[in-house]
Amino acid sequence: MLSSLALASVILAPFFAKADPNPTEPSGLSVFNEGETCLIRWDPDTTGEWTTMNIQLMTGSNLNMVHITTVATVDGTDAENNSYEYPCPAVEPNSKIYFYQFSTPTSETVYWTTRFTIASADGDVTDPTDVETNAAGEEIEWGTGALEQPGDAVPAPEIGGGTSSSSSRSVSDDDESSSSSRTRSSTSASGSRTSSSSSSSSTATGDSQDGAASVVRPILIPAAVLAAVACFF
Length: 233
Hints:
This protein has 233 residues and is mainly beta. Helices cover 7% and strands 31% of the residues. It has 2 helices and 17 strands. It has a 5-stranded antiparallel beta sheet with strand order 5-4-8-9-17, with no helix packed on it. A 4-stranded antiparallel beta sheet has the order 1-3-6-16, with no helix packed on it. The radius of gyration is 19 Å and the shape is globular.
């Protein structure tokens, strides 16, 4: 006979099974030089909803996220292609102020990587120019960057039926966290898809605001189910 805890787990399992894509790379320690390969990785979506997953290069603060360009549009449910490579763009300034945003037209939920560094072609980097304090009281370094050639930017995609150019949600910054994205078909002509077994040139570790972050949906469990579970304790 099942124990009370095991039986409760069986009853509640369907309410915790949802798994959208999870960014895993780059991390807060990742540094990519302009013109070299920028790598993105993610754990695939298992809900079947993220068949069209847009990946945007972003900058700005947690409360005022700024779209720079759309990097790729991929199939976020394809477990065989959960990474994406493309030539790192020329940006200004070269600093740890960039991150990726993952979204789909069918959901308002978005996910982010940690902030990472895009260095100059020679590897030169400047410190972020701004600091803000997050909800945990930690100081988060940030800044606002842009493409050196703004005309090369790909417009922001639609998110949940509306176009997104900025967001008021929070980006987590944790140097020990990593971000990733998965790709199958891309709208970026200069990018390439890679399988989950491909190697990475960046370090998958991250600081308290530079970790992969996501909007967490509340889990709604019917009262009748909760009452049934309570009977076993």
